[in-house]
Amino acid sequence: MAETRILLADDHALVRRGVRLILDAEPDLTVVAEAADGAEAISLALEHRPDLAVLDIAMPRLTGLQAARELSRSMPDLRILILTMYDNEQYFFEALKVGASGYVLKSVADRDLLAACRAAMRGEPFLYPGAVNALVRHYLDRVRDGEGVPARAITDREEEVLKLVAEGHSSRQIADLLYISVKTVERHRANLLQKLGLRDRLELTRYAIRVGLIEP
Q1: Which of 15, 49, 56, 99 is 20 to 30 A from 71 via CA?
Q2: What strand order describes the sheet that includes 126-127?
Q3: Looking at the domain that runs over 4-142, which CATH code has it been given?
Q4: Is Phosphoprotein included in the keywords of this UniProt record (predicted)?
């Protein structure tokens, strides 16, 4: 059986340790790198070239969804699984949109994660069983009502800037992290305030917490 080399990203060391124990106990699965945030996950993926990335959603600097979006662009052959505590329809659709093969709840990771890893490597989608009927029903309801998948209010780059602003980074730090100019950061910040109808950094932070970009 071919070995699957895995990158594991989660900002909680205890969670990473537990998930690694599950994965490394299998003869065909090996964790080759661990990351504590989304930006580190991208860097380690480019360095180690794993076959599969298992990414938590709520991480500092870049979320798992943001990291997945970038990895799908830069490493199109990489398979991606989202590992999350959020049983959330919007996150599920976002995960599919950024190229993830599956969506696994942490609460049942000991049951579902191995099957999800192997499904991803076969090129098959994986969704935790209890959510399938609800997600299909909700999606069909939206289509029937003419709504489709809910649109995002902000762009991918604006989301990245929003997360970093909410985490307390300065405009210069954000510019350095995203390889853009300070002026561009300030323009994105102004666009966010206007689009979201907010007034300042505090309200941006509250919004970021509400939509799950950062943890309270």
Answers
A1: 15
A2: 29-35, 4-9, 52-56, 79-84, 102-105, 126-127
A3: 3.40.50.2300
A4: yes
For 156-210, CATH gives 1.10.10.10
Tell me what percent of the residues of the chain surpass a pLDDT of 70. Answer: 88
pTM over 0.90, yes/no: no
| Per-block mean pLDDT, blocks of 10 residues, the chain (216 long) | 89 91 92 94 95 92 90 90 79 79 82 88 75 64 63 82 92 93 92 84 84 80
User: What does the chain come to in residues?
Assistant: 216
CA dist 11 and 89 (Å) reads 23
Residue 138: predicted pLDDT: 65
CA atoms within 13 A on the CB side of 46: 12
Residue 163 has, within 13 A of its CA and on its CB side, a CA count of: 27
The domain locations on the chain are: 4-142, 156-210
Q: Report how far residue 35's alpha carbon sits from residue 38's, in angstroms, rounded to the nearest whole number.
A: 7
Q: What tokens were used for 118?
A: 């192997």
